[in-house]
Amino acid sequence: MPPPAATNLGYTPPDGGWGWAVVLGSFISIGFSYAFPKSLTIYYKEIQAYFSVSYSEIAWVSSVMLASMYAGGPVSSVLVNRFGSRPVVMVGGVMVCAGMVLASFGTSIIHLYLCVGVIGGLGLAFNLQPALTIIGTYFQVKRPLANGLAMTGSPVVLFTLAPLNQFLFDSFGWRGSFLILGGIVLNCCVAGALMRPVNKAVQPKPKLEPPPCDQEDPAANANAQSANLLTEESQSEGKSERCLDKFIDVSLFKHRGFLIYLIGNVFMFFGFFAPVVFLAPYARHQGIDEYSSAFLLSIFALVDMFVRPATGFIGNTKWVRPRIQYFFSFAVAYNGVCHLLCPLAEGYSGLVVYTVFFGVAFGMLCALLFEVLMDLVGPKRFSTAVGLVTIIECGPVLLGPPMSGALVDKFGDYKYMYYACGVMMLVPGIFFFVMNYYNYKKLDEERMQSAAAEMRNSEEAVELKMNPVEKIAYETDG
Q1: Which of 40, 62, 92, 216 is the most buried (most CB within 10 A)?
Q2: Which residue stretches of the chain have pLDDT < 50?
Q3: Strand locations in 36-80 (E)
Q4: First vs last C-alpha separation in the chain
């Protein structure tokens, strides 16, 4: 298994300066990527009546959009590695705009699936991955704080788009609103323009004086010859691997920390989005009026908005940063506990209390979700890693809410859905605690072994360079 992710990027990240402008651009891109599919639900009722479709059919618009955003992760990662973050984000903004404009002329629900779901979802994928990746090139010491601030874009944009969409809906209907939203989402192009590539000025390494010709080391020559031979033998085998690595880093599937993260996340995402989607319907099911039910989402977004940067600040402290995977494990388990206790909340005041605690839990998890992945694999491999993670998570993201909705249809009560989501979050949280303890323990052992090997190699090198008289004196002193 590989050692912990290397922090040596070959250059010194500025940890500030223009990096804060990049954080602003990522704030906008990430905000639209996560909030845009949720904000479109305001138009569902009119679209449902216009096309005479069921609620489940219209609900697939957001599901297809989110699934396309996650499925497009590897393509976005390849483009980022090839062209950089700036052009990819700008192309993504144009794609989402085109999808919304084409959807405004839609004649069937399938038309919306293709335009809003597929085209718009792929455009959001081109906004999400580059925004996450570029932060790791500008920040190292302050990276958890920068990631926390950037991830705050999701609740802020959602909090802003919710009343704006209601105003547009009342004034222009769903077709006119889609046209205007297509223009608004072009702000992602402005965000992309802020993502200037980092100046990777490498400081020259100090030159080492070559050994004199008359003191050439025979052992060193033998080692060099054997290394060259091994290199020549592995060239043909490495050609196919390098060709594949241009598109996907398959070695990540041998990375212990990455596999732990991936396995836990796949199970976790089955219960990740459903509690947010069904929060307002659950309140209405308990006899609470529509406006008060919708206000729960505003409370949730407001709490989430402040928790994410606070989580980034805490994650950047010297007490948490070295073992930040435990902080993430706690956030996942905390979400599960909140959902398990949700059915015990009685009345509107009880739901408000649950919403506040859920907002804290959700904000913590989202602020750490990609930071811990970067902590595991390192900034250099993060782009490919996040692409692999998102495409594998595409299935749980697409199927999670419909499966949770099926529980509501079967039992006629939302509490069983919240119990199921609580279990699907609590179990991965415990899994993360156990496996991260094992991973940290193995990493410490590998560091100790590496340090011992380096010490042995240095002692052997000293002995080889000594003449016989010096060697006898060295052994006598030792």
Answers
A1: 92
A2: 1-6, 202-241, 243-244
A3: none
A4: 36
